[in-house]
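Risk register update: the risk of archive-format incompatibility is retired. Evidence:
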Amino acid sequence: MFIKAISDYTIIGACVLREDNIAAIFRKNIEAEDLDFSVMYFDGSMFHELPLDNDYYIGIVNCGDDVFVLGKSGNITRYSLSSNMTLNDILSSREDWSIEDSKDYCDLVRIRVLGADVLCCGQFSQLYLLESDLWKRYDHGLRSYDSPDFQDIGGSGVKEIYGVGLDGEVRMFNGINWRKIDIPTNQHILCIGSYSADEYFLAGYNGLILKGRDDLWEVKGEMEDDKRYWDCARHYDRMYFVHSKGIDCLDGDELEHLDIQIPGEKLTFHRLFSGENYLWSIGEQHILMFDGRAWKEFTMM
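Archived output:
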């Protein structure tokens, strides 16, 4: 496996375009002062390294064959990764943006695809939408130094957006205005995922899981001190929640701690991605895939 040959690296996130085509953010030389980030793209047979600018990159998504990579300071890079493209084709497809507003409102945190649109969010309720090949402010007046820090966004599209964040803050946008959503907790919320068109899950600190929509939310599972859910995703008819030591599965009202073992490996966990018949787990050193029955490590060579 290629990534095993790199002794000093960490994987920040990944997305799956096709069955065996994966694009991942790699940070190499992690002990060095300089930032050394790139996109590692496996096209099914070859492994390509795609350069990024000088930023701390924290998120990657794909919208069709286009992959978008988000940096904390507002730098965003897009590569087109269509089937059978040569490396020169991929490099020539690169497009870059810099969201200047983010320099006044601190870090961007997440990039998501909602419906057919790509958006990113961050501190002080920053929200930006890619529209007509430009990143435009889309917070509709919510952004301010008194507004909550968004840790994630979810929803069905630009006319239904949930922004979630620290201290149990949830805001909902209906295409016209925002309103505050009251939920039965003040725990930090780190992620939001959808189960269906009318059912969402929130998760975060101390094992918090909430299920609901609009103003109706209920706690699922049991709280656990020092457990932080970093991400969640649906795979078939179950919801999965990832924390630093593993993955939990919610089947109805029952929360199961999954026993994931790969011989000879001390596994790492951080993000989840559901696609191409698998649930994908992306950790700092490992990419795993789950077909609903068994886990295995994704090998790139």
